[in-house]
Specification:
The chain is an all-alpha fold. It is built from three helices and no strands. Helices cover 73% and strands 0% of the residues.
Length: 71
């Protein structure tokens, strides 16, 4: 997700009017926090499946999801 995506989604959510030009950085930080939380929730599902079924592929999926947030 890049800056243009964040701005587009803010407009789609009709939240753009709540953010002036100086608030774009705060909106970007917020979007990154939301994305990180969603990645971690998805990775946790993979972890649970891996533990439940002793499936190494699930652990690989969890790692791949977490890596998407790496700088």
């Amino acid at each position: 997700m890049n800056r243009d995506d964040i701005i587009r989604m803010a407009r789609e959510a009709e939240a753009w009017s709540l953010v002036d030009h100086d608030g774009i950085a705060a909106l970007e930080r917020f979007a990154k926090l939301v994305a990180a939380a969603e990645r971690e929730a998805c990775a946790a599902v993979c972890d649970k499946l891996g533990d439940e079924y002793a499936d190494a592929n699930a652990a690989d999926c969890a790692s791949a999801i977490r890596e998407r947030g790496a700088p």
